[in-house]
Amino acid sequence: MTRVSHTQHILGHIMAAAAAVAKVLLRPCHSSTNFDQKSPDSGFGTNGHSQSPILEGAISGVGLNTPLPDISTVNLPRSAAARKRRRRKKKSKNPWQDDEEPSPGDTKSTMLSMSIRRPLTPLGNIRTNPTTGKEGDFDDLLTYLDATLVSQWLAEANKQVTDIATWCYKGDNFVQFAHFWLSDFTAEKQQEIFQLEYSIVLDHLTVAFAAGREAGKVKHRDIIHFLLAVLKEYPTKLLASVGAYMFLDYLDVLSSERRDTYRRLLANVRCSTQVKQYAQWTLAIRSFALVSMWHAVLNFYRSLLSDTSALTRVLPVPMAVISKTDPYPQRMYHAIRNGFVDVVKYLLDTGKVSVQYRDDCSRTLAFIAVVHNQPLVLQHLLQMTPQPDVNESAKTGNTPLHSAANSGSVSVTRVLLEVKDIQVNVTNPQCEDATPLHLAVMHGYKDVVELLLAAGADHMVKMGELTANDIARDFGHDDILALLPRTDNS
């Protein structure tokens, strides 16, 4: 399957997986009315109208018609009269229910004013859904959902998730964004953009419940409470210290092919219902919220890349598309090559790559850091537990110290020599028992030779039949020969 054909069906896979676990949401609603027949609200009808063929087609197209487990007993939402009595009773107890609602707005500038300059109500101040009186029970609210809008959201989300997947798996795009997100974009800026995009999703939901609001059946706080249950990561996690890693983890999931991970991600809501259609709508709304927010942040970053005055980026050599089955080793390689300690730390901290990883050439992560002359990355890796074995050789027979000496890198050589158990005179049996000193002398790297000698390198060890002095003399490196202790032949 080509990348394009795969990404065109990504959201379908997500929603099909979500439908398979919709039973997680199918919990008792504690209603007093029980039926052994299908609920009239389990179809596509909303706002008192008949079934919507548009939504039926959209959901069918993304796999939401996947059969769910049979429900032996379906509890219908309470009657209209019962709802009115309950609302009148609660109205006297909950004066906040009649708070003045925010003025409407559709543009990002309006949302910026609403959400950033006047923050949304904190999660701790949001009370139990006033319509149902039960935590996580939104059946009465969902009765007024405009289903045709949900189908439109899914169509847009499908395009967005295709774009996310294509972009994230091209070259080192994911790694470059991760570095920007972890180091260049401050926590305050992350909070601002989260608040902005969250408020835009809230605005979409407000429009979807317009009929209920006009009829006085749905309050703005009902919608806020519902969105907090559907997108439970906001604000307690996304705005906390774990938010940066969480955002990258979710971006990884949205751009991958791991259906089981999709399933777990979409099922992570604080909602309960016995109505199959409400469960599917809830998961569809969560999918739309996640994809639209994550895509918007990604677009913000890409807009910065197009403005060289706003963000300077060193463009890498063009690279092929990353492996879809296991992208993490390649992302680690890109992170090390670019010297992104923050991304290296993220991949290690989240368990995506082990500190004991070896590539196809049996090189450790520390070895790869040496190859790419990244001393800061090397220092970070050597602080890990367990510490990478700096004396371990690759398939070529070279150790990291051989590689550092061979390339003349003073900075990584110095870092390696600070390791307590470093073997300065380690030999490569595949190269006539060459030591790091032999290689540094051969290439004329005077500074590296000085470091090795200071660390106890033995100039009398032979590479084949030649000592370091012989090599310096044969290659005409008189300045290095002057550094080496004299022998009988020099």
From TrEMBL:
Residues 81-93 have a biased composition (Basic residues). Coiled coil: none annotated. Keywords: ANK repeat. Pfam families: Ank_2, FAM220. SMART domains: ANK. PROSITE patterns: ANK_REP_REGION, ANK_REPEAT. The keyword Mitochondrion does not apply. ANK repeats lie at residues 396-418, 432-458. The keyword rRNA processing does not apply. PANTHER family: PROTEIN FAM220A (PTHR31980:SF1). This is SIPAR domain-containing protein. It comes from Ridgeia piscesae.
